[in-house]
Amino acid sequence: MRVDPDNRLVADSLEAEWNSKLRNLSEAQQERERQREQDRKVLSEPQRAAILALATDFPALWRDPKTPDRERKRMIRLLLEDITLLRGEQITLHIRFKGGATKTLTLPLPLNSWQLRQTSPAVIKEIDQLLDQYTYPQIAALLNKRGLRSGVGKAFTSRFIARIQRCYSLTPRYDRLRKAGMLTVVEMAALLGISRQRVTIWKRHGLIHGHAYNDKNDCLYEPPGENPPRKAQGIKLSERAPTKVVPQRIEEVQCEA
User: What tens digit of pLDDT does each residue of 24-42 get?
Assistant: First the structure.
């Protein structure tokens, strides 16, 4: 009524359209109520209870091996309106359900193929500790005996242990023994005044003590102490008593990878 007289014709047209929309809305609401009333008549109370129980039975129905995949797809379509996936430092899922509810989920990025083939950190740590006392073949045998496997599910070999030691920069067994004070065959020969071949022979007969650091049985030797073995002409090595040497506790050496 307060519209400018020059615009009255336009106002009348808008008012008529508005009233028409209101009538349509009222009719739609009435139709909705009639339809709901008809639905109530079609479904009995036990049927309604069974339908409502589906909400609690959904997980069991989904996991039931008798439910075919096509039915699972139909179940998803009945529940979900749409899903928005965002990939960044992690995967974010924005889920919108048919009833209007929304939910956001965050998931870690899937591992690359090379990451799936990596040996587990626990096994790497175990190898690092075993290098204090064992050679590559011995470590491989111990891990296989325990039922452990590589990242690709294969048994361990000495070559594989060596590759892990290099790739993860684990301190080699040779360096660990040297850090513990072990002597090379040249150093031991010079200390005892014998040849390198004689060092090996004396070790075999227990006069000196060595620790293998590779699969070729090359050794580093414990210092002979204050009473080292000496040459004794005329006495067989098998008849000589082994030198009483307190073995150094190699296992106590702590080496950082």
Answer: 999 999 998 888 777 666 6
Q: In three state form, how does the secondary structure of the chain look?
A: CCCCHHHHHHHHHHHHHHHHHHHHHHHHHHHHHHHHHHHHHHCCHHHHHHHHHHHHHHHHHHHCCCCCHHHHHHHHHHHEEEEEEEECCCEEEEEEECCCCEEEEEECCCCCHHHHCCCCHHHHHHHHHHCCCCCHHHHHHHHHHCCCCCCCCCCCCHHHHHHHHHHCCCCCHHHHHHHCCCECHHHHHHHHCCCHHHHHHHHHCCCCCEEECCCCCCEEECCCCCCCCCCCCCCCHHHCCCCCCCCCCHHHCCCCC
Which residues in the chain land under pLDDT 50? Answer: 233-234, 245-257
Between 3.20.14, 1.10.10, 1.10.1660, 2.60.40, what CATH number should domain 178-252 receive?
Answer: 1.10.1660
> Which pTM value belongs to this model?
0.50
